[in-house]
Amino acid sequence: MFFMLFQESPPNLVALFIFIPVFILTEIVLLKIGLMIVKAQERKNFYWVIISFFIQLLVIFFVFLPFILFGIAGEFNGENNPAILLVILLALFVDYNLINMIHRLGAKRSLVVFLLFGIPFIIFANIFGMIVNSI
């Protein structure tokens, strides 16, 4: 966010300040709905859903941290790098297993919650990338 200050056009912070809370609330609600659909037995209240969301968000952030640092340093030129695909698959696999570990759902029920949580997460990430790139 700090490096956006040095760009030629002023940053569109209003879009970010509206988009980020909508993203967080939507993902928390979808995670809770997913846990209700599969009838989770453990750690299904909002306290654990919020903790689970932020744990998943931090783990995905740390998996992508090398690419973020390369982007800030200017070394990542946006080429179709096969390492990005591997990192995305690794992040999805880790997120699926985190849902399974935290809520103790089992493989099949965890997949349902993961899809209900993961697909909108990917859509929001693409929209967030477009907002940041348009700044």
Overview of this structure, please?
With 135 residues, this protein is mostly helical. 76% of the residues lie in helices and 0% in strands. The protein has four helices and no strands. It has helices spanning 13-37, 46-73, 82-103, 107-134. Helix 1 crosses helix 2, helix 1 runs antiparallel to helix 4 and helix 3 crosses helix 4 (107-134). It is globular, with a radius of gyration of 17 Å. The N and C termini lie close together (11 Å). The mean pLDDT is 82.
What is the distance, rounded to the nearest whole angstrom, between the alpha carbons of the first and last residues? Answer: 11 Å
What is the residue-mean pLDDT, rounded to a whole number?
82
Major sheet details: none
User: How many individual helices?
Assistant: 4
Low-confidence stretches: none
Roughly what percent helix? Answer: over 70%
What's the SSE pattern? Answer: HHHH
Radius of gyration: 17 Å
Structural class: mainly alpha
| Percent of sequence in beta strands | under 5%
> How would you describe the shape?
globular
Counted beta strands: 0
